[in-house]
Design goal:
Two copies of one chain form a homodimer.
Chain A: E1 10-19, H1 26-37, E2 44-57, H2 62-76, E3 82-88
Chain lengths: ~90, ~90
């Protein structure tokens, strides 16, 4: 409001969520086992995360980033066991 | 072999797997519904994908990329309904 009305332009957001490095990642362990079984013996440190891409009205600024922080922290990740970061295009 | 022995240096690989744009993404639809419920009415086009990060011995070259293509195509993604790309650090 203090900056006038939003232009209503959509921004494209990609959120990357990954298990914290201190947390066991059973899905990653399963993939690592499968990779080794398939002959990729040197594969290690496999971690599986997720990405969420979407569009939202706004512009890259403090207001949008505040909203995105809330979204990531409350809905898109579990802050106890996951880290997140996002990119805005 | 033709290029001599591998140096055995690890490369760090990140694979991004996402549902093809023509394929329904029920997980993305659920997240979109939740985002709208939380007051982010303008959120749209939500798609959920996954990332797999790991280390593997080799160097960024045709041999490693051939191996990674096979891995992504056969194990890490379902090529019928998903696209993949990867980055090598």
């Amino acid at each position: 409001m203090g900056q006038g009305r939003s232009l209503g332009l959509p921004v494209k957001v990609t959120v990357f969520v990954s298990p914290k490095s201190t947390v066991l990642d059973p899905q990653g362990a399963a993939v690592e086992h499968a990779m080794k079984s398939l002959g990729h013996a040197s594969a290690r440190g496999v971690r599986v995360g997720k990405t969420i891409t979407f569009e939202i009205d706004g512009e890259d600024g403090p207001d949008t980033r505040k909203k995105l922080d809330e979204l990531c922290d409350g809905l898109l990740s579990n802050p106890i066991i996951e880290d997140f970061r996002y990119e805005i295009d």
